[in-house]
Specification:
Blueprint: H1 10-17, E1 27-29, E2 36-38, E3 48-49, E4 52-53
Antiparallel strand pairs: 1-2, 3-4
């Protein structure tokens, strides 16, 4: 079995893997229906994006 040419320290490996953690998505309030939605995305509740209705959402 091969041996590493240059061994990575534990701190270096753990610092790199710290970015792999799961994160919660950042939500913002929709200005039309005041429900939470993802940033820069169409509101799934009312169908508005950037002050304009993009799709019709049936209830």
């Amino acid at each position: 079995m091969g041996v590493h040419q240059n061994r990575q320290s534990k701190a270096r490996v753990r610092r790199r893997r710290a970015a792999d953690k799961a994160f919660s998505p950042s939500l913002t309030e929709c200005p039309q229906c005041h429900k939470f939605r993802l940033q820069h995305q169409l509101c799934p509740h009312c169908g508005f994006y950037n002050g304009k209705q993009v799709i019709q959402v049936g209830e």
